[in-house]
Structures are given as structure tokens and as C-alpha cells.
């Protein structure tokens, strides 16, 4: 009722003890397109929905490499996210310069959180309108953190932010108990499925999503489109065969996979995988 | 009354020699591995060579503490470049960055005598030679450090474009093959080791070509 009187300044409390500008900033995160993160003991996977405004434009970059061992996915005001990524990169470089070792993830998120807090207590500033999923590896293992515009941060086994993230979160809540022991491939598959949940009916293609991985012995990198499409095809085939043995469809998909795959080996492996799952008996 | 002078210097000279030779599709960069102070040897096994970017290697002699600091600054700057441009720095770009970094400390210089070697954007070998405050030039070959006075005339004799020696000659990349250039480097270090007390122990030879980077060592006299 009295929201409008106390929401002009970030430095004005409401009678109920809330800072509305900060809460509005968190709304901005919910409006951004979805970003998802999951972690196992040895790997962390980030995925995000990347939809271009129109067919003519390219889509926005939402996943940034911060250092070899840290990456971040953002949701909300991507410009704010870019600026914060630059800050994170700079902090990692400076720490490495001084200590000749990688910046522990927990330290970085605290610095990020403190930076966000400053903007909630200055009358000439506004809060950052972006939520960050920070994925990283350090001596104490694999980590996934979520940094809020409010200056809070939390560690997660798996999380999703942005629009239609609830669908992804529901899926993750069902599966998260298995994540710690998951293999890298299963983790990526779960990330793709969670992304598909966020798309809510729209077909999952590598052109609408971006996947990035960091793990033990594997520096942070974004997977390229062909790899992602192959991964999608592999588990889409499995899903189609599990639901209904629609052989013509499966055949068409498998042919498409063979065409796209780099060699007969990959097509063969895909077919054998399908046969093992109790699907259509395909003769190669 | 004469001006009072400091009884302490922030600099020290750790000696050593560096060489780089540019070929048509390769670049050889070499430096000895002896680190000295005064008439003493601190270690026989210290690398003066730093791999700054994929196609860019720097060898530096002089005050190794300043060399180390310089390498770290360039390395950090290169990371920032990669984040911003999504690609590695080219050798000519790194050459300019090194020059600017050195001049930045014009009034308290890095006591570092550098020679930068690598492949340019066309895949041809390139060598850049510097003084301590950043003045630089692209050349076909160069040497720096305590043995450079012994090495440079020999390289001029072998590599400077022969006709005509008298006119200002533009020494282009050498027509020598990669193995010939590496042999020349080994010869040159063996000779410098004979007469320069600060050069010796081992020579570290780095070869940059289309197939990547290759590192080799050769023993030198240890006296």
C-alpha cells in the first residue's frame, strides 16, 4: 500500500524494514532469460537460455570466463553483468600476480557481494540489476554460488535464475541428490534437460542455449555449438526411444545424427546406444 | 661541496646473454642459464626466457628481479587482452606493449635488456630488440646482455644481407633453415662463453614455428 512512498531512494527504509529499490533490482533478475548451474564433486556446469531479440540480431553473451578456474553466468541487466565480470577478471589477475596462485572462489564471491552491498547504501548509486551464478574450482573442491543484487550470496548444489527458472528448479530439486557423484557427461545432460524445462515446450537446439564446463583438469570453457547439438541429439534420441518406439521418427533422427556426426564411428556409437536402451532394432 | 651520492643501489646486474634470430617461417630465441652477482654465481639453472603469448617469446638479461616483475606485468596484461579480444596477442602487438610498459617507468627503469622473438600475423619470423626504456626496432636478428658485444659482430658477419655491406642494409629474415639457425646459435654461445665470464653453464634454445613451440638445452663451459 505504501510501497510508492518509500521506493524512490535506495537509502530510504520502508516502515516494514525493507529497501524497495533492492527488491526491485531482484525483480530485474527475474525478468532476464534463464541461467542454470549444477555441481558435482569434480565439475560444475553452467547453462543459459540465449534468445536473440529478433532473427536479425545476434544473441547476448551471458556466460563469461573469469579465469581458468572460474566462470559466471548472468541473468538480468546484462550490461551490469559485463561490468561485474570485468571486475572479477581483474581481481583474479591481481590475486594471481601477488600470490602466484588462483583466487579461491569463496573469496571472489565475498568481494563481489561487498561490491553489490555498497550500491545499496549510497544515495548516488543504484543496485546492480543482475544475478550471477559463479562456478569455480579451488583447493576445497567444486563450487557454485549465487550472488544477488542485494549483496547476499549463497552456495548451491544446483540453482536456476531468471524467467521460467522455476521449471528448471523443480527438475533440479528432483535430481540434485545424485549430482555429487555424477559424471561430467551426466551433469551436462542434466543441465541440458533443465534448460529444456525452462524453454517450456520450445524445441531445445544449440542455437538457443549456451553450455560451459569447469572441472578438475579442465579449465573453464564454453562448449561450441556443434558439440552441444550432438549432446542434445544423443539424449533426445534416447528420450524418443524410451517414450514410444516411433521407428520412422527415430530413424530420421538417427540419420540426422549420422549426417551431423564427424564420422561413421559416432553414428555407430549412437545407434548402438539406442539398441542397448531397448529401442528400435536398427541395422547399421 | 660535491653532490652526495647514494651508498646503495636499487639495481644489480645478474649477467647473461640473449639472442634471437628470425627465419622465413620460424624464430629461434636463446639465452644462457647462468645467474651471477659480482664475481659469484647464484645459480647455473635459471631461465631468462618467458613465453608471453602463443607466438611470442621474450628473452631478457640484466637485473632478474626487474625481469621477473616485467614478465608478470606483461603476462597479466596479456590475460586482460585475451578477455577483451577473445584471442591471443600477436607478436607485433606484444612488441608495442613491451615498449610502452618499459617507457612507463622511464624515470625508474626496469633494468632489463630484452629481445622479443616470434611469428608475425603472416607466420614469418620476427625479432624485436629493445633498450632498457623501451626504444625498439624490428630486426632480423639481435643479441642483448653481457655477451652481446662478442655475439653481435659475429651475427652481423653471418646474417647481415651481404650485398652491399656498406650501404644501410635492411636485414630481412635470414634465408637459413631452422637447423642451420639453431647451429649458429649454439656456435655463438659456445664462443661467447669462452671470453665472457657471465655467460656459460647451459644455453636454453626455444624454437617457434607453425607446429608450435619447442625447447632445447645445450651444455656450455661451467668456468
From TrEMBL, chain A:
Domain Proteasome alpha-type subunits per the UniProt entry, residue ranges: 6-28
SUPFAM superfamilies in the record: N-terminal nucleophile aminohydrolases (Ntn hydrolases)
Gly residues bias: start-end ranges: 265-277
Cell compartment(s), UniProt: Cytoplasm; Nucleus
GO MF, any single term: hydrolase activity
Residue ranges of coiled coil: none
SMART domains: Proteasome_A_N (SM00948)
Alphabetic keyword roster: Cytoplasm, Hydrolase, Nucleus, Proteasome
GO cellular component: cytoplasm; nucleus; proteasome core complex, alpha-subunit complex
Low complexity biased stretches: 245-264
Pfam families: Proteasome (PF00227), Proteasome_A_N (PF10584)
BP GO terms, sorted: proteasome-mediated ubiquitin-dependent protein catabolic process
InterPro entries: Ntn_hydrolases_N (IPR029055), Proteasome_alpha (IPR050115), Proteasome_alpha-type (IPR023332), Proteasome_alpha1 (IPR035144), Proteasome_asu_N (IPR000426), Proteasome_sua/b (IPR001353)
Region (Disordered): 241-284
Subunit structure: The 20S proteasome core is composed of 28 subunits that are arranged in four stacked rings, resulting in a barrel-shaped structure. The two end rings are each formed by seven alpha subunits, and the two central rings are each formed by seven beta subunits.
Family stated for the protein in its record: Belongs to the peptidase T1A family.
Purpose of the protein: The proteasome is a multicatalytic proteinase complex which is characterized by its ability to cleave peptides with Arg, Phe, Tyr, Leu, and Glu adjacent to the leaving group at neutral or slightly basic pH.
Protein name: Proteasome subunit alpha type
Taxonomic source organism: Medicago truncatula (Barrel medic)
Gene giving rise to this polypeptide: 25482164
TrEMBL record, chain B:
Superkingdom of the organism of origin: Eukaryota
Keyword Secreted: no
InterPro entries: Ntn_hydrolases_N, Proteasome_bsu_CS, Proteasome_sua/b, Proteasome_suB-type
PROSITE patterns attached to this UniProt entry: PROTEASOME_BETA_1, PROTEASOME_BETA_2
Any Pfam family the entry gives: Proteasome
Keyword presence, Ribonucleoprotein: no
GO molecular function list: hydrolase activity
Keywords in alphabetical order: Cytoplasm, Hydrolase, Nucleus, Proteasome
Compartment annotation: Cytoplasm; Nucleus
One term under GO cellular component: nucleus
Gene Ontology BP, a term: proteasome-mediated ubiquitin-dependent protein catabolic process
Principal location class: cytoplasm
Family membership: Belongs to the peptidase T1B family.
Role noted for this protein: Component of the proteasome, a multicatalytic proteinase complex which is characterized by its ability to cleave peptides with Arg, Phe, Tyr, Leu, and Glu adjacent to the leaving group at neutral or slightly basic pH. The proteasome has an ATP-dependent proteolytic activity. Non-catalytic component of the proteasome, a multicatalytic proteinase complex which is characterized by its ability to cleave peptides with Arg, Phe, Tyr, Leu, and Glu adjacent to the leaving group at neutral or slightly basic pH. The proteasome has an ATP-dependent proteolytic activity.
Subunit architecture: Component of the 20S core complex of the 26S proteasome. The 26S proteasome is composed of a core protease (CP), known as the 20S proteasome, capped at one or both ends by the 19S regulatory particle (RP/PA700). The 20S proteasome core is composed of 28 subunits that are arranged in four stacked rings, resulting in a barrel-shaped structure. The two end rings are each formed by seven alpha subunits, and the two central rings are each formed by seven beta subunits. The catalytic chamber with the active sites is on the inside of the barrel. Component of the proteasome complex.
Name of this protein: Proteasome subunit beta
Gene source species: Medicago truncatula
Gene label: 11433762
Amino acid at each position: 500500500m505504501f510501497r510508492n512512498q518509500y521506493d524512490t531512494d535506495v537509502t530510504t527504509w520502508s516502515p516494514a524494514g525493507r529497501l524497495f529499490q533492492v527488491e526491485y533490482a531482484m525483480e530485474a533478475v527475474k525478468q532476464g532469460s534463464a541461467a542454470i548451474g549444477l555441481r558435482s564433486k569434480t565439475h560444475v556446469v553452467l547453462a543459459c537460455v540465449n534468445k536473440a531479440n529478433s532473427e536479425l540480431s545476434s544473441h547476448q553473451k551471458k556466460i563469461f570466463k573469469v579465469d581458468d578456474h572460474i566462470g559466471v553466468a548472468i541473468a538480468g541487466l546484462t550490461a551490469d553483468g559485463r561490468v561485474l565480470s570485468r571486475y572479477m577478471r581483474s581481481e583474479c589477475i591481481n590475486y594471481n600476480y601477488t600470490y602466484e596462485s588462483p583466487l579461491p572462489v569463496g573469496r571472489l564471491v565475498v568481494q563481489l557481494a561487498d561490491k553489490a552491498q555498497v550500491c545499496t547504501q549510497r544515495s548516488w548509486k543504484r543496485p546492480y540489476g543482475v544475478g550471477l551464478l559463479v562456478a569455480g574450482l579451488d583447493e576445497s573442491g567444486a563450487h557454485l554460488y549465487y550472488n544477488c543484487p542485494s549483496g547476499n550470496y549463497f552456495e548451491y548444489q544446483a540453482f536456476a535464475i531468471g524467467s521460467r527458472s522455476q521449471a528448471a528448479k523443480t527438475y533440479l530439486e528432483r535430481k540434485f541428490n545424485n549430482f555429487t557423484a555424477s559424471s561430467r557427461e551426466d551433469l551436462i545432460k542434466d543441465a541440458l534437460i533443465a534448460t529444456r524445462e525452462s524453454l517450456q515446450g520450445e524445441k531445445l537446439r544449440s542455437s538457443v542455449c549456451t553450455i560451459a564446463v569447469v572441472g578438475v583438469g579442465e579449465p573453464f570453457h564454453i562448449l561450441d555449438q556443434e558439440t552441444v547439438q550432438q549432446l542434445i541429439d544423443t539424449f533426445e534420441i534416447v528420450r524418443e526411444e524410451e517414450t514410444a518406439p516411433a521407428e520412422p521418427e527415430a530413424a530420421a533422427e538417427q540419420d540426422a545424427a549420422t549426417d551431423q556426426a564427424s564420422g561413421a564411428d559416432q553414428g555407430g556409437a549412437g545407434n548402438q546406444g539406442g539398441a542397448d536402451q531397448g529401442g528400435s532394432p536398427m541395422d547399421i | 661541496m660535491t653532490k652526495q651520492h647514494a651508498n646503495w643501489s636499487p639495481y644489480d646486474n645478474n649477467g647473461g646473454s640473449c639472442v634471437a634470430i628470425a627465419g622465413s617461417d620460424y624464430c629461434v630465441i636463446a639465452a644462457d642459464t647462468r645467474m651471477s652477482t659480482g664475481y659469484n654465481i647464484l645459480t647455473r639453472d635459471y631461465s631468462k626466457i618467458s613465453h608471453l603469448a602463443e607466438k611470442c617469446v621474450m628473452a631478457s638479461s640484466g637485473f632478474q628481479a626487474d625481469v621477473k616483475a616485467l614478465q608478470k606485468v606483461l603476462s597479466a596484461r596479456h590475460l586482460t587482452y585475451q578477455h577483451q579480444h577473445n584471442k591471443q596477442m600477436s607478436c607485433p602487438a606484444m612488441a608495442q606493449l613491451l615498449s610502452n610498459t618499459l617507457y612507463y617507468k622511464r624515470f625508474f627503469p626496469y633494468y632489463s635488456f630484452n629481445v622479443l622473438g616470434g611469428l608475425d600475423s603472416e607466420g614469418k619470423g620476427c625479432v624485436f630488440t629493445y633498450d632498457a626504456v623501451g626504444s625498439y626496432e624490428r630486426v632480423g636478428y639481435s643479441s642483448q646482455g653481457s655477451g652481446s658485444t662478442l655475439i653481435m659482430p659475429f651475427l652481423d658477419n653471418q646474417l647481415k644481407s651481404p650485398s652491399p655491406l656498406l650501404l644501410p642494409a635492411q636485414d630481412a629474415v635470414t634465408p637459413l633453415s631452422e637447423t642451420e639457425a639453431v647451429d649458429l646459435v649454439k656456435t655463438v654461445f659456445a664462443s661467447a662463453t669462452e671470453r665472457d665470464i657471465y655467460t656459460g653453464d647451459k644455453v636454453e634454445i626455444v624454437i617457434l614455428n607453425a607446429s608450435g613451440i619447442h625447447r632445447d638445452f645445450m651444455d656450455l663451459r661451467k668456468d
